[in-house]
Amino acid sequence: MVFSVIRDKWQPIIKQLEAVLGKKGVIKRKEELLTYECDGLPQYRQRPALVTLPKTTEEVSAIARICHENDIPWIARGAGTGLSGGALPVEDCVLIVTARMREVLEVDYENQRIVVQPGIINNWVTQTVSGAGFYYAPDPSSQIICSIGGNVAENSGGVHCLKYGTTTNHVLGLTIVTPEGDIVKIGGKVPETPGYDLTGLFVGSEGTLGIATEITLKILKTPDSICVVLADFNSIEEAGNAVAEIIRSGIIPAGMEMMDNFSINAVEDIVATQCYPRDAQAILLVELDGLEVEVTNYKEKVGEICLRCGARNITSAKDAPTRLKLWKGRKAAFAAMGKISPNYFVQDGVVPRSQLASVLSEISALGEQYGYRIANVFHAGDGNLHPLILYNQAEEGSFEKVEELGGEILKLCVRVGGSISGEHGIGSDKKCYMADMFTEADLETMQYVRSAFNPKGLANPEKIFPTPRTCGEAANAKKAEFKNIQAF
Amino acid sequence: MVFSVIRDKWQPIIKQLEAVLGKKGVIKRKEELLTYECDGLPQYRQRPALVTLPKTTEEVSAIARICHENDIPWIARGAGTGLSGGALPVEDCVLIVTARMREVLEVDYENQRIVVQPGIINNWVTQTVSGAGFYYAPDPSSQIICSIGGNVAENSGGVHCLKYGTTTNHVLGLTIVTPEGDIVKIGGKVPETPGYDLTGLFVGSEGTLGIATEITLKILKTPDSICVVLADFNSIEEAGNAVAEIIRSGIIPAGMEMMDNFSINAVEDIVATQCYPRDAQAILLVELDGLEVEVTNYKEKVGEICLRCGARNITSAKDAPTRLKLWKGRKAAFAAMGKISPNYFVQDGVVPRSQLASVLSEISALGEQYGYRIANVFHAGDGNLHPLILYNQAEEGSFEKVEELGGEILKLCVRVGGSISGEHGIGSDKKCYMADMFTEADLETMQYVRSAFNPKGLANPEKIFPTPRTCGEAANAKKAEFKNIQAF
User: Fold this and answer.
1) Which of the residues A107, A175, A192 would you substitute to probe the B interface, choosing the one with the greatest number of B C-beta atoms within 10 Å?
2) Chain A contact set for B247 (CB, 8 A)
3) H or E segment at B183?
4) Per-block average pLDDT, block size 10, for chain B (488 residues)?
5) Do A426 and B195 touch (CB under 8 A)?
6) Do B190 and A437 touch (CB under 8 A)?
7) Can you list the domains of chain B with their CATH numbers?
């Protein structure tokens, strides 16, 4: 009866948690726990010991305190859509799931603020305020299912980040529960608050510094007018030049997305937009927003620049149905890959805009070398690449090979002065590559900060930072030996 | 010979520092040290033991290491223009002055980045890149004399922060020297880097986490067209409403400044702009930038909104000389106060935009209560107030009274949901008010972060955080007793 012995160890913990959350607030049955074994990176799995479903900041604080007192690791989880395994459980851990924390706590149109609980879905924020003429700008592809709490943890981006920035630019204040269970308010409702910018530090810390339980977001005025311009090109280079020239002209589009020939055809095969020419080597989708007169003017300028850079055709749309039609293929791109290939692996890296064309051609060469096809659909304006590596997991050892190829792509991004993550985070998936981007002193400084918040290392252990256990490289072993730091 | 005994204690330190910096790199003569007794807050003074003038990151690192090994507090100082006493020396400290660190290290127009040393003057960044059609957006009033390193320490703002954000939105990466002398690179050249956002944490940390020695800044395309709209009103309320209505309309002006009747008359007395009507209770200066067509359209909209809110006259200017004429009074406002009053004290607080009119009337009532005239010249769009309290320091006890009045204004800002600093920082001047804005747990969390970087507390001690020594309040005494923290 090994199982019951293990469970018995948890009985006093379950009792304490149920005293706070009620019986319905604690999930303990093996089959119900299965759902929580992984997030949007299904290649890694681990069952948690327990799942908790708090409703309030105070309940979250009580859970964290119970874990702290009993030395139990805990992991915050929103909607579980993260792509880097940031919410992947560790052995014998408690999950704090925010699915029952979905209240809008306050809306202040005058000062353009909304206060929400972390479990609220990204898209609901815009739905809540759109009647009054406002919206919430960060729009990850998963926006109809991902949670704001998860967006805060990963500093999520999206198509509109080119003009409006990532989540960090839209979070003004947070109530957080620290790994020791303390409730701390950071930031506020005005844009600048004194002391350290802990809000900026917390956003993107991937659950390793605590959990946000109340989030004050900036809401923006819905633009008067929106226009989408679609341009198709004979080469990636031409499209890349058009991106650089548009930015150089002083126009900052709301979004600027590129798709390569392979993605175009995959999308046309599956959703048949009939907007993207199958023989184009690249298409560019440029969204412009602002006042009517401004958008009209920008639209003309963008069209001129694209033609000057070699575009074959320019289409544009201002009315919502046609705009959605032009966007349809881009929005369906990941799903299309899922249909034309048994499996795909999305990478997320950033390169300086000036390096776009050369990096894409190197990625293509790497794909050939490893024997995999790579589709490119990405936020061109920010240089945020999303190469999709197509493969078949049923083939022995294929995922390991794909991971290696993904790693080569990240190293390439770092080599040209870019970054190993644009918007998906490091999580479990990319921690091995942190040492390619940061020196020992850099990582040590981050670990000091982590320890300041998370001295026992109980909040989301084994994430972000390289550890010998997972990287298996001697070079990394050293990096985990931080003086005075209880690294996990 | 007490003096020589004290100096003798410094002889081995001087020797070590001169070995790194040469004789000219270390200032030790009493009369030369006088210059460094205070920054832009002259009411507090303290002579440093030594001043060092490094030229490179490595030299800064060597100085920090010498201080660390000998337990000597050190303070980074840029141009010394800070208004909150952030660069105020403490007893027996070493200053690290960046006056010889004024190199532009790299300019990358393609990716819109510039890398500079910290001693470079804010305005020089724009001068360096303006020929190629770029500029650096944050523009504190002191921009022709303040240093970029100081801007990073204080997260400086300026007129254009309404549209473009404060310094933190324009710093992409930093090389820092930690209080232990380590050289650490944080952030990078692309907008998003993984791991903790230490760049965001460092900007605005007022020299307490280390010193930035290389700074990567974003540069922006010079706008096609700029227009300034001047509107005058019969009441502050009307002008306040116009500010709210302009923002509500979806227009984000580059800047939106307000001056009250008292400031208008002070300015007209001194610089005679002849643009600001002396009988107006408030004027609004709205700067619009962007494409020609956009600016023209915005200008009309802003004019219409102001008239609808009760403006008496609207003037506007697109050509540079007329624009400068409209701005002249605003730019000269602080200097004008210096001429009409023996002394003045600038406060810096933030209120939610919706509270502007009511807070201004409360400030005026507080002024009457204390018997001082208060001029209001401020960044209305951000709700960032700069009340100028006019007084005569020669009158016994006047500065203490003015400080108390300034404190009341800050408490009022906090009461309405605002902040005790918009852009000048906390420094030495405002640390007593931190407890009005933050709870014990909030401040404790910041102290933990400070300790992570600055375990001995040697980098800029006695700044930001309240200490019983300066606040003298029993309530604050408790807050300094942080467990495991070596607070100063």
Assistant:
1) A192
2) 112
3) strand B183-187
4) 63 97 96 94 92 98 98 97 94 97 96 96 97 95 94 94 93 96 89 87 97 97 95 95 90 95 94 93 96 91 97 96 92 89 93 90 95 94 93 93 95 94 90 91 91 94 76 35 30
5) yes
6) no
7) 2-97 (3.30.43.10), 104-221 (3.30.465.10), 225-334 (3.30.70.3450), 341-415 (3.30.70.2740), 431-479 (no CATH)
